[in-house]
Amino acid sequence: MKIKIWMKTGKDRMRVKNDRITAVPVLVLMLVMILAGAGCGPETPEAPGIPESSKPLETFEIHADQEILKPAEIPAKEERAAVFRKAPDAVVPLFADDLDFADLKTAVEGSLAWYRRMAADALIAFGSDTYTAGHMADTLEQFLRLMETGPTPGRLNEEIRRHFHVYGFFEDDQPREVLFTGYYEPLLRGSLEPDATFRYPLYGRPRDLVTVSLSEFSPDLPKETLVGRHTGQAVVPYFSRQEIDGADVLSGRADPIAWVDDPLDLFFLHVQGSGRLELDNGETRHIHFHLSNGLPYRSIGKYLIDEGKISKEAVSMQSIRTYLKTHPDEMRQILDYNPRYIFFQTRNHGAKGCFAIELTPGRSIALDRKLFPPAALAFIRTQKPVAADDGAIREWVEFSRFVVNQDTGSAIIGPGRADIFWGHGPYAETAAGHLKHPGQLFFLVARSPTNKP
């Protein structure tokens, strides 16, 4: 059987035929093949004026006999500028937490369970250093024991300095600045049957969509998953947002999970990656990212800035929504600027990140999974909004807290980006929609797996 697979990236194109590869200028050489059993994975949201953040790229599967998460290369333009390493003593931050311990314990226990399912000797990269999964689990156990004692601020800092290494990305011995954004679970109104009000389909996975895992064919190929559709003897890119929403190409190919009443709410659900669906029969369902059409994400916030429609200073999820609501004749063109399309599934629980850990509001963050240790304990310093009852932001205040790296996103790339999961509700929408503030990010790992604070 002959299989041809065509991929396009701008003007680059590559054809793979039989067992021979012929490349027409392309950035990376890849071998692909059709897989009938496609994988899935989460993804994540759009930050104001910045590409989407979370939601997960693919569900991480744990295999006891596999070497896990070897040190990854930092993108070339970041490589010389920022290095992930232990923090010099002079810049170890003052640790303080603005939230209570209960939700932190929930988040940490989610990561702890994840590490316990791994082979104990699996290696986790901290820059050029590595720690075993067993060591990482012990780190979280030590931290929980410390926090359960209710330490004073002074003792908390003393114990962390004594029993934990602190890591981060550094430039000339100074912590690299990180841009913090946010994501949340939006609430949509929907129905299981279409009518004049509920007429915008929320699609599940199309039956003709296939995925191709490159690394399964050769260790020399990147650990990437391609998405497309099978047309006879070829796999071609999947339909774009414009084709799906404008030409009804999914009729007969995909079944709607439900129908919603607002196309803009549906678009922002695609950006956020998960949400809650309030049905007209009184039922509420959790909606989760299943997989995407594989096309690149393009930020409509950036598009509106570039077109001079919203200023860079004013752009936010809320200002984007306001512009589109007041310019309905432009809405379809602007939404179609982002060709990426998300397919969903329903579950009985809240949002999960890319490591299949249920996310904890205010405690789970999304980072570049190629650079940062997965499910690891971290500490952040940035700002948060103080909002009035009507959602208006009164002021921004500085805060710091312990968090856990439990998610990723297609726009969360490099050491200078982090996305905070805020949960659901009015405040979550306000914080996620407006947060675009600088801050710092550090990671903690136990000095010794036998130390018990």
Secondary structure: helix percent: 10-25%
Number of strands: 25
Annotated CATH architecture: Beta Barrel
Strands ordered across the widest β-sheet: 3-2-1-16-15-14
Instruction: List low-pLDDT spans.
Output: 1-80
- Supply the CATH class: Mainly Beta
The structure class reads: alpha+beta
Main β-sheet, in a few words?
6 strands, mixed
Beta percentage is 25-35%
Compute the average pLDDT: 83
Number of helices: 10
CATH fold type: Ribosomal Protein L25, Chain P
**What is the rounded distance between the termini?**
62 Å
| Rg (C-alpha, Å) | 22 Å
CATH homologous group name: Barwin-like endoglucanases
Given the C-alpha coordinates, what overall shape results? globular
- Count the domains: 1
How would you characterize the overall build of this protein?
This protein is of the alpha+beta class. The protein has one domain: Beta Barrel (Ribosomal Protein L25, Chain P). The protein is built from ten helices and 25 strands. A six-stranded mixed beta sheet has the order 3-2-1-16-15-14, with no helix packed on it. The protein has a six-stranded mixed barrel with strand order 11-24-21-23-22-25. It has a six-stranded mixed beta sheet with strand order 13-17-12-18-19-20, with helices on one face. The longest helix is centred in the N-terminal third of the chain and has 16 residues. The protein is globular, with a radius of gyration of 22 Å.
In short:
The protein is an alpha+beta fold. 22% of the residues lie in helices and 34% in strands.
